[in-house]
Amino acid sequence: MAVRLFVGNLPYSATEAALREHFSSIGPLSYIYLPLDRETGKPRGFAFVEFSDRAHAEDAIRRFNNQLFMGRPLAVNEAREREDRPQASSAPRSFAPREPFAEPPAAGERPARNFGPDATPRGRRKPGGRGGKGERVPKQPIREKPGGRFFGDADDETVDDDLSSDNFASRVDDDFQDE
Questions:
Q1: Distance CA 16, CA 34 (A)
Q2: CB 29 within 8 A of CB 59
Q3: Max alpha carbon distance in the chain (Å)?
Q4: Alpha helices per DSSP H over 65-119
Q5: pTM metric for this prediction
Q6: In angstroms, rounded to a whole number, what is the distance separating the alpha carbons of residues 29 and 96?
Q7: Do residues 168 and 162 lie in contact, with contact meaning Cβ atoms separated by under 8 Å?
Q8: Per-domain residue ranges for the chain?
Q9: Could you report the per-residue pLDDT of 18-72, keeping only the tens digit for each?
Q10: How many CB atoms lie within 10 A of CB 69?
Q11: Domain 3-78 = CATH 3.30.70.330
Q12: Do the Cβ atoms of 32 and 16 come closer than 8 Å?
């Protein structure tokens, strides 16, 4: 009975001929499969090797598992069957039939809904729901108000304050000296 082996951690540069040469040192090979990526067409990094004799397959596992092949340690073990998964084929898939649509509601009857309570009518809603209208407008810089500024007046220019003296508090005016 034929025994299929999984050979993992292959370098992407590995070819079918190189694998055949490497594994034929154990015994005659009946099958080699080097899968390619569907999209890129490059090798996927693993292969399947089949021996017609179980003794040759077990010997290949013992000798080649964790041994270097083209600079990489191979992972060699007995291949397992694929797990149950949907077949990827070009045939159209068959889907289970759906339940027929429900009857439309009669006149005056409300349709049955299973997705939550009805919303309140627009006229009866509370103002400012969902965070208020102020949070929905884009933020802008705060405008400066023109109040509070003092630019001076024409009368201010005529005031003659003599602050050039040393101490204006101790300065004596001429008007006060005559007394």
A1: 7
A2: no
A3: 141
A4: none
A5: 0.47
A6: 45
A7: yes
A8: 3-78
A9: 999 999 999 999 999 999 999 999 999 999 999 999 999 999 999 999 999 999 9
A10: 18
A11: yes
A12: yes
